[in-house]
C-alpha cells in the first residue's frame, strides 16, 4: 500500500546544466566550489555530489557533520565555510582533510594552539559586518604568522544580486587594497552566484556558487529550477458568489467558482504567508492560490481549468515554472523555499538522463 503524499522531485541533469552555464561565465583559471550547505539547499547532498563530482573543483558546507559525510563520497576539496569552534572539531577537520575558514580571533587561536596553518581561508570583513576580520586585525596576524604560509583570502558580498548597489564596488575596493599588501601567491575568493552573474571579472581563484546551481537566482532565466514540488488535489467543490474560503475568510468569491483543495500546507514547508493569486500549475494550466494556506492543505482557484478532478497534481514550482515566481510574489527568497520543505514530503531523486 502506498499512502498519499506530496512529492519533491529532484532532477540532477538540470543541476549539471546549471553548473556548465555558470562555469562558462568565469575565467578558465578560476576554480569552481559548489556550495552545498544545508543538504545541498534541500536537494539531497549525497546524491547531488555523486552526480556533479566530475564537474566541480570542490565543495563548501557549513556544518562539520555535512563535511564528514561529504568526505566519505568525494576526494575533492571541502571547505568548512564558517570554520571550527573547538579543538575537537579542529582535529576532526584535519582527519577529514577539510579546508577551514578562519573568520575571527577566537578561531585563529584554535589554529595557533594546534600550530597547523595548512589549508586555511581567511575571511575578511569588507562591509557586510557579519563575519570576518577587519583589515588591521588581519594584517597583524599576517605579519606575525602567515608570511610564509599559502592561504586563501576571501570575503562575502552583501548585495551581489543588485548590480548597481554601491556596496559592491566598495567591497571590491577594500578587498583588492588589502590583497595588494599580501604576497602575490595568496589565492583569492569573493564570488557567490550573484557575483558570478553580475561581476564575472571578479571570479579570481575560487568562485563559491550555491543558489545558481539550483536555479534559484532571480534575474537570470538561463538557470533552471531543478526541483518540482507537487501535491495531489484531494477535493474539488463549487462555491457561489460571496462565499469565503479558508481561515479568516481571507478569500472572497467575486463570482461563482470552482475550488480545489491540495494536500500540501505549511506543515509541509509551504510558507503560511503565501498570498492569494500566487500561481500554481494544474494540468499545465495556471491556477491561483485562493485562501490562506492551512497546516495541511492549500486551496486554489480552478474555475478556469478544464477537467480538474481529484487526484490531479498541483505544482507549486518546477523546471518549467521557476521557484523564483513563488518567492518573489510572496516576499520570500528561493533559498528559504528550498530548505524549508519538510521530511513528510516524499523526495524522489531522478536518474540522470
Ligand atoms: C552560502 C554561501 C555562498 C553561496 O552563495 P549563493 O548566493 O548561494 O551562491 C558563498 N559563500 C559563502 C561564504 C556562503 O556562506
Order of helices and strands: EHEHHEHEHEHEHEHEHEEEEEEEEEHHE
Taking all Cα atoms into account, the compactness measure Rg is: 23 Å
Hetero compounds: pyridoxal-5'-phosphate
Q: Which sequence of strands runs across the widest sheet?
A: 8-7-6-5-4-3-2-9
**Individual helix count:** 11
User: Helical content, roughly?
Assistant: 25-40%
What fraction of residues sit in β-strands? Answer: 15-25%
Total strands: 18
Largest sheet: 8 strands, parallel
Distance between the termini: 29 Å
Oligomerization: single chain
Low-confidence stretches: none
Overall mean confidence score, pLDDT: 97
- Overall, the morphology is elongated
Please specify the SSE layout and strand pairing.
Blueprint (H helix, E strand, L loop, with lengths): L6 E4 L1 H12 L7 E5 L1 H6 L2 H8 L5 E4 L2 H10 L3 E4 L6 H9 L3 E4 L2 H10 L5 E4 L11 H12 L5 E3 L11 H15 L6 E3 L3 H6 L7 E4 L17 E13 L4 E2 L5 E2 L4 E6 L16 E4 L2 E5 L8 E4 L11 E5 L5 H7 L4 H6 L6 E4 L4
Parallel strand pairs: 1-18, 2-3, 2-9, 3-4, 4-5, 5-6, 6-7, 7-8
Antiparallel strand pairs: 1-10, 10-13, 10-17, 11-12, 13-16, 14-15, 14-17, 15-16
Helix pairs in contact: 3-4
Bound molecules: pyridoxal-5'-phosphate (PLP).
Defining key terms:
353 residues, alpha/beta, 8-stranded parallel sheet, 11 helices, binds pyridoxal-5'-phosphate, elongated, 6-stranded antiparallel barrel
Short summary:
With 353 residues, this protein is of the alpha/beta class. It is built from 11 helices and 18 strands.
Overview of this structure, please?
- By secondary structure, the protein is an alpha/beta fold.
- It is built from 11 helices and 18 strands.
- It has an 8-stranded parallel beta sheet with strand order 8-7-6-5-4-3-2-9. It has a 6-stranded antiparallel β-barrel with strand order 10-13-16-15-14-17.
- α6 links the parallel β5 and β6.
- α3 (45-52) crosses α4.
- The longest helix is centred in the middle third of the chain and has 15 residues, at 166-180.
- The chain is elongated and about 75 Å long.
- The two termini are 29 Å apart.
- The mean pLDDT is 97.
- The structure holds pyridoxal-5'-phosphate.
- Pyridoxal-5'-phosphate (PLP) binds next to α9 and β9.
